[in-house]
Amino acid sequence: xxxxxxxxxxxxxxxxxxxxxxxxxxxxxxxxxxxxxxxxxxxxxxxxxxxxxxxxxxxxxxxxxxxxxxxxxxxxxxxxxxxxxxxxxxxxxxxxxxxxxxxxxxxxxxxxxxxxxxxxxxxxxxxxxxxxxxxxxxxxxxxxxxxxxxxxxxxxxxxxxxxxxxxxxxxxxxxxxxxxxxxxxxxxxxxxxxxxxxxxxxxxxxxxxxxxxxxxxxxxxxxxxxxxxxxxx
Amino acid sequence: xxxxxxxxxxxxxxxxxxxxxxxxxxxxxxxxxxxxxxxxxxxxxxxxxxxxxxxxxxxxxxxxxxxxxxxxxxxxxxxxxxxxxxxxxxxxxxxxxxxxxxxxxxxxxxxxxxxxxxxxxxxxxxxxxxxxxxxxxxxxxxxxxxxxxxxxxxxxxxxxxxxxxxxxxxxxxxxxxxxxxxxxxxxxxxxxxxxxxxxxxxxxxxxxxxxxxxxxxxxxxxxxxxxxxxxxx
Lengths: 233, 233
Description:
By secondary structure, the first copy, chain A, is of the alpha/beta class. Helices cover 35% and strands 27% of the residues of chain A.
C-alpha cells in the first residue's frame, strides 16, 4: 500500500507531519499506508509506540511524516475516516522545527569545542530563519567510533559530520569513505592517523571546524566545501 | 498488518535494526509489516527514501527498527523472502549506537555552555559503556522556542530537556508542562520569566545544568531529579 518515491520534478511538495492516536489493533498502519498511497502522499518516516500514560494511555501513538503535493487538510481528513483512528493532530515537521543536522563525534573535550563553534554559528543562521541543529556524541575506541560514523547516514536530516579527536584511523577511515559515498561531507580536526587524509576538509581549530560545518550546510552562507576539498586550515 | 504493542512482561526483548533495499513498488512496506506481525515483531520506526546515488540508485531504501523476542536471524530471513526485496542488512539499533538523548534548546551562548558540560559528562559515562548523546538547537523567540519544546517528545530517544536562556515564559512555559506530561523532565537555567517556575530543576551554572541532565538519565549515576524536584542550585 505504501508507495515510496520522490517526485523531484514537482516542486510544490510539502512535508505533512501528524500525530495519530489510534486503537491498538492490527492493521492500522496498513490502512494509513493505503490512504497515503491513494492520494500520492509519500511516507518518509513513521514512529509508533503505545502511550504509557495520560489520556491516551493504552492507545497506539503514531508519528507520521509524509511528502504531499497539495493541501494537508485532505490527507488529514482522509486519515480521520479510517476505522479505529481516535484523533489526528497536525503539526510542523521535524525538518521545519529542527532542520539540518551537524553531527559531531569524537573525544569529549574536542567534541565540546566543535559544538561551541557550531552552536554559535547555527544561532546566527537560525536567527535569520534557517534551521540548523548540532548533535553530538562523545565516544572512545576505533570500533565504537567507526560504528557510530557508519550510522550517520541513517540519522534523519544528517547533513554533515565533524570528527573531533586526536587519533583516528583504520576502520574509522573506512567508515568516513562510506559516509561520503552516501552524500554526507566529513570535516576532520587535524590529527594523527589516516582519518584526516580521507576527509573533505581538515581544520586545526575545533571552534572553526564547527563554524565551517554550519556555513557549508547553510543555504544563506557562501562557504562551499567542494571549492576547498582536501585542503587544510 | 502492523501490530503496535509492547510486551512489557517479557524481558528478553531486543531491538533489531535493518536496512532493506527493495524495488520501488507499491506494497513493499505493507508486506514488511505483514512479516513483522506474523512473528510478533513490533515495528518502532521506519524511514524510507529512494536512493539517489550509488549502486542502489532508484531502489527504495527502508531503515526499520523493530522490537523482537528471539533471534534476529528469523526476522531477517523472513524479510529476505518477500518478493521485491533486494537485500537486508542487519546492524546495531540507534539506541545501541547513540543511546539516550539530552536535548538543549535556547540561546546560542548558553546552549553552547550547557553542551560543554553535558558532552564532557556524557564522555565519562560513555567510556564506561553507556550511550548518551547531546543534541542542541539555538533558537530565538517565544513562538519558535515553544514549538521546538513541544516537538521534543516526538524526537526518538529524547530523555531530558535543558532550556538554556535568559528570558523564557508564556507559551514556552505551557510547552514545558506538555513535555513533562509526556514523561520527559525539564531543567531550566535560572532566568527571568515563568519558565523556571515550571521546571523540574533550576540550575544557575549552564555547565552544571548540562552535567546534571546527563547524570539524571544515566543508569550508573546516582543523581535523580525527582529527589530534588523544584529546587534551585
